[in-house]
Amino acid sequence: MSDAKFNKLLDYETLKQQFGDDEDKAQTSSTTSALVFNPEERLFDHSTQETKKPGLTGSRLRSYAFAVLTRKEYSKAELIEKLALYADNRDEVLKLVDELSKENYQSDQRVAEIMLSSQKRKGKGPNQIKMKLKNKKIDASLIADELKETNWVQQAYELKVKKYGTDVSKDPKIKAKQIRFLMYRGFEMDAIIKAISRKPNDFE
């Protein structure tokens, strides 16, 4: 497949005109909207009693796949299920997604890296990040190095300070509360103990 063909399909403005955009839908009249092809709106045809799929195939399925990918990154498993809702043939979806993955238009690696960065900003530990990757059917080994290189003690300590302050409590009940809080956030016990025992002037 030539780059020119992909570039043409990746022209977001063209795709937006073909498929519509959420904001544009709110602004266009019902007459105009009726002329815009939108698989998600056609998923349910209220003119009949049975639910109908748009039955996308070939270039229309391919174009819809690119329209989806221009809006956000999807894991391979997520993209398959997304496209299968509107496709006529699941085997065609599997073949298309494999092709998009090989051409790097879809990447589990990118999704994993984006998730790692996002979850760390939210104060989530490695266990919760791995669980979220598993839910998206992404192999955590894709970011094994990044997980290993992250200073999880520092991450847990900063979260503990934000929630409980810098004091190192000797009260078993308070310590237990802090441990539960950090465990819920997905940190491992070794990092938790070091974090709640760490004083402001301590350096590793």
From TrEMBL:
It is found in: Cytoplasm. This is Regulatory protein RecX. InterPro entries: RecX_HTH_2nd, RecX_HTH_3rd, Regulatory_RecX, WH-like_DNA-bd_sf. It comes from Acinetobacter portensis. Residues 154-196 form the RecX third three-helical domain. Its main location: cytoplasm. Residues 107-145 form the RecX second three-helical domain. Keywords: Cytoplasm. It comes from the Bacteria. Pfam families: RecX_HTH2, RecX_HTH3. The keyword Coiled coil does not apply. Modulates RecA activity. Belongs to the RecX family.
